[in-house]
């Protein structure tokens, strides 16, 4: 039994939980008691001291409290959810209009009227059996998708694949495979996806930071990374997010190669391509693992494929690395319905739906880029536009202002609490002062968002509501303090 590690979800997992509640519930547990019962709790802050509990049961109770989550902005069916980078256009599956599934063979009537081919099959009768532990067919489909021969003449095969519960399982498995707890380190490039740090804490692995170049659209700095790798041989993994989260910047191929070519470092470069299908065609470097034994490329079906609910991720790697990952996973980590839906999502008719939805998202992304700057109080876009979200500054004045976290928090709160539009505050991350991250929604959702943010900013600049220091509400000041990175 292992406790769930807490970290601020605004900088890691795509969960809509209250950071204030997490701060109130933050506790410390005695290492001896936890070791005795097999629990592992990661402190919200490394410098927190251990606190003794009188009984083991109390330690367990505290641990259970840590694992409970409360929703900050509950969705009642009317909210516009632009906070978790989900696919607003739905699953990339050629479903019937009502979204129903066909189980087993399609009926003769369905075949005759042409509806059978538009449905998806899930074998419910087989749920009494454990799922396939190897998922060879699913892996073959992923290889077929990424064998574009843009970056190599070689083919990747199922031997190059690990599949698991989202990308998060691969993140954790890589750390367990290549890092010795309490000894080895990993390197990340902030601002970046927070689960790298969470998994490092869970596994007692220190994190070395080499920031992205905030003055250059958050570009990777491979020369600085290589300097750190040369200076510290304890670093065994380098996590690079491309396109970045929250930056939406695609990392240049030559920058990745520069790290791969480090002459003395003996470690793995991990490229997280969760949002790669929103970038230029053939931007994925997944097939490049056939040429680089020290490269791992992670992907997910949660974003462009619109299948966040099935939790399916993959790691492309050299066969020996993929074998290590497969050796440490749970035997049946991918459920049968997940695998069946994922396999079908990779079929041509379903890929066509995914690509059509992606194009709709790209059009709305372009619309946000064009129309958001016309709203008084909206500043620069930060980073790139290679994802299904944008990162944009909120200013302290309607015209000629500067990025301001107080305003950004107030916009974030007002949108959610009074307008039913939920976005993400990112202002506490490196180089993201005053920034909100906004997921690209449907055309109707973008219409509503653009209307509501204009109203909210106008109200803020008119000074509506009780304000604290520098015009920031008391609650906004509290949230700005509590939202950590």
Tags for this model:
alpha/beta; Aspartate Aminotransferase, domain 1; Aspartate Aminotransferase, domain 2; 4-stranded antiparallel beta sheet; disordered C terminus
How would you explain this protein's 3D organization?
Helices cover 34% and strands 11% of the residues. With 485 residues, it is an alpha/beta fold. The chain folds into three domains: 9-67, no CATH class; 85-89 and 353-482, Aspartate Aminotransferase, domain 1; 130-346, 3-Layer(aba) Sandwich (Aspartate Aminotransferase, domain 2), CATH 3.40.640. Strands 2-8-7-6-5-3-4 form a seven-stranded mixed β-sheet, sandwiched between helices. The protein has a four-stranded antiparallel β-sheet with strand order 9-10-13-12.
Chain-wise SSE layout:
Blueprint: H1 19-24, H2 31-37, H3 56-67, E1 80-81, H4 108-113, H5 136-146, E2 161-164, H6 166-178, E3 185-188, H7 195-202, E4 206-209, H8 222-231, E5 235-241, H9 253-260, E6 268-272, E7 295-300, E8 313-316, H10 319-328, H11 336-345, H12 348-371, E9 378-381, E10 389-394, H13 405-418, E11 421-422, E12 424-425, E13 435-439, H14 443-461, H15 474-482
Parallel strand pairs: 1-11, 3-4, 3-5, 5-6, 6-7
Antiparallel strand pairs: 2-8, 7-8, 9-10, 10-13, 12-13
Helix pairs in contact: 5-11, 6-7, 8-9, 13-14, 13-15
Region (Disordered): 1-25
Subcellular location: Endoplasmic reticulum membrane
Catalytic activity: L-histidinol phosphate + 2-oxoglutarate = 3-(imidazol-4-yl)-2-oxopropyl phosphate + L-glutamate
